[in-house]
Write a structure and sequence with these properties.
It is built from nine helices and no strands. By secondary structure, the protein is an all-alpha fold. Keywords: Membrane, Transmembrane, Transmembrane helix.
Length: 211
């Protein structure tokens, strides 16, 4: 029974963490970049304020001394998101218990909840460091530099790279773009054409050129 409880907690935690990438994507795409009643404040605070202060150029990082404005979510946003999920997680646990009686009493809802909390804690932490570098150890890692550039491109192309922390949903929904993909297409095209011309050049012509 102990092994079942532990494995359930781990598996549901991973499921909750993975689910959060898709929840973040939908929340970002349809609540923060579209105006919907009664959540106009999410659109205003994100699209009309945050994106206008922090653009894709050098202003992507906070400028000047003092506490940078409008970087983190409102203080109530994270608790509300978590509370919103609680009844659904409890309902899911109850349904699983009906279908699989052996799973009754296992921490399904708790595992899902903890997975979501870990994801959105990582979201808030990394998003803040992207806009307000602090020299934290995590900023040295290649994966952080990748997601920072990933998010910087979102500030240029607002309906792309909608994930901040783990771009799994971007990958699944086709909204993931990279610097190579957006900025280097002309250069890549020139390299490909040059390579084709070189490969199509007859060996005799190459020899004559060298001589």
């Amino acid at each position: 029974m102990t092994l079942l409880i532990a494995s359930t907690a781990v598996i549901t935690g991973i499921i909750g963490f993975t689910y959060s990438s898709f929840f973040e994507w939908f929340n970002h795409r349809y609540l923060m970049h579209e105006k919907h009643f009664p959540l106009h404040d999410a659109f205003r605070g994100h699209t009309l304020v945050h994106h206008q202060i922090y653009k894709w150029d050098k202003t992507f990082e906070a400028q000047g001394p003092g506490k940078p404005p409008h970087v983190a979510l409102r203080w109530y946003a994270f608790p509300l998101m978590m509370l919103f999920h609680v009844p659904f997680f409890i309902l899911f646990q109850w349904l699983i218990g009906l279908v699989i009686p052996a799973m009754r009493g296992t921490p399904i809802a708790l595992g899902l909840f903890v997975g979501c909390v870990i994801y959105f804690t990582g979201y808030e932490y990394t998003h803040y460091l992207m806009h307000v570098p602090k020299g934290h150890y995590v900023e040295r890692y290649r994966w952080f530099k990748f997601i920072k550039e990933h998010h910087r491109l979102h500030h240029k192309y607002m309906l792309r790279n909608l994930n901040v922390f783990i771009p799994l949903a971007d990958l699944c929904f086709g909204t993931l773009v990279t610097s190579e993909g957006w900025r280097s297409k002309p250069a890549k095209r020139q390299r490909i054409l040059a390579g084709r011309k070189k490969s199509q050049t007859p060996p005799s012509a190459t020899a004559d050129t060298k001589s």
